Amino acid sequence: MEALRRINLSAALIGLVCFFLPWVQVSCGGAKDTLSGLDLARNGQTLLWLVPILLGGLALLEILRALKEKPTIYAIVERALRSDHGLPDESRTNASP
After folding, report:
1. H/E element holding 17?
2. Torsions phi, psi for 78 (to 5 deg)
3. What pLDDT does 37 receive?
4. Based on the number of CB atoms within 10 Å of its own CB, is 93 exposed (0-12), middle (13-18) or buried (19 or more)?
5. Residue 35's CB: how many other CB atoms inside 10 A?
């Protein structure tokens, strides 16, 4: 379940960044023009505003959930490093003597 939460947060942040990257590129002769998701949303494609709103909301919810479990940024970074480098997680180890 914890891995799924990290994937959700990562996917939301990647999707949010991609919204501002170029989506459409048109070139003819020497002229070239690109449009990002933001440009398309401003120019009449109003449903595209749902993309940053929903992805930003999802990222915020995941961050708030992580802060609720362990309220320090050190704990969040530590948890991310433990999962990325294969270190044992303290919550999964058996602490019996």
Report:
1. helix 2-19
2. -60, -45
3. 86
4. exposed
5. 16
CB 70 within 8 A of CB 79: yes
Q: pLDDT, tens digit, for every residue of 16-61?
A: 888 888 888 889 988 888 888 888 888 888 888 888 898 888 888 8
- Return the number of other C-beta atoms located less than 10 Å from residue 79's C-beta: 18
pLDDT at 1 over 70: no
Distance in Å from the first CA to the final CA of the chain: 28
Q: Two tokens at 24?
A: 């459409």
State the Cα–Cα distance between residues 18 and 47, nearest whole angstrom.
Answer: 16
In 3D space, the residue among 83, 94, 63, 93 whose CA is nearest the CA of residue 2 turns out to be: 83
Of residues 78 and 14, which shows the higher confidence score? 14
